[in-house]
């Protein structure tokens, strides 16, 4: 199976935030105006936010880190939990709208990367999938995907 992929411009950071913090209340206006990509996931046990910053200075990501650190510090309910950040991610986007009936897309792509021993972090939206790899493994991931028959546009 081959797929068309594109690379999301910019660097991504993944933040793990204490579940008591109302992330969207605190950050929604900033996320809407300053970022090209973000994803928020909340469960009963945790919440995470993935943010992409196209600015090479990473000023948006640093602003979010600072704001979240301040919110957590000022919130007595989150004293036991600190902000955790996984930095230096790059994302491949599966191009096109993916029908819910399609089978094996992520299995195929993640299998190629697993064979190359490249860890991934996956985010899905209603229309498509995003596969994040650490920036220092990007070229290796790109080569592995191309060698498997994928076409990648930068």
Automatic annotation (TrEMBL):
Residues of the CASTOR ACT domain: 85-145
UniProt cross-references to InterPro entries, sorted A to Z: ACT-like_dom_sf (IPR045865), CASTOR_ACT_dom (IPR027795), CASTOR_mTORC1 (IPR051719), UCP008459 (IPR016540)
Pfam families on file: ACT_7
GO biological process: amino acid metabolic process; carboxylic acid biosynthetic process
Database matches in PANTHER family: CASTOR ACT DOMAIN-CONTAINING PROTEIN, CHROMOSOME 1, WHOLE GENOME SHOTGUN SEQUENCE
Name of the featured protein: CASTOR ACT domain-containing protein
Native source species: Smittium culicis
Top-level taxonomy: Eukaryota, Fungi, Fungi incertae sedis, Zoopagomycota, Kickxellomycotina
């Amino acid at each position: 199976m081959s797929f068309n992929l594109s690379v999301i411009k910019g660097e991504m950071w993944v933040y793990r935030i204490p579940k008591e913090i109302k992330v969207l209340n605190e950050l929604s206006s900033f996320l809407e105006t300053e970022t090209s990509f973000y994803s928020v996931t909340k469960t009963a046990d945790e919440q995470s936010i993935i943010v992409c910053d196209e600015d090479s200075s990473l000023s948006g990501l640093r602003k979010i880190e600072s704001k979240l650190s301040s919110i957590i510090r000022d919130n007595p309910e989150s004293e036991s939990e600190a902000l955790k950040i996984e930095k230096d991610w790059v994302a491949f986007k599966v191009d096109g709208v993916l029908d819910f009936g399609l089978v094996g897309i992520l299995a195929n792509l993640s299998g190629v990367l697993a064979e190359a021993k490249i860890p991934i972090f996956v985010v899905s939206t209603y229309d498509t999938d995003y596969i994040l790899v650490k920036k220092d493994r990007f070229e290796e991931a790109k080569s592995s995907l191309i060698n498997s028959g994928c076409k990648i546009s930068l």
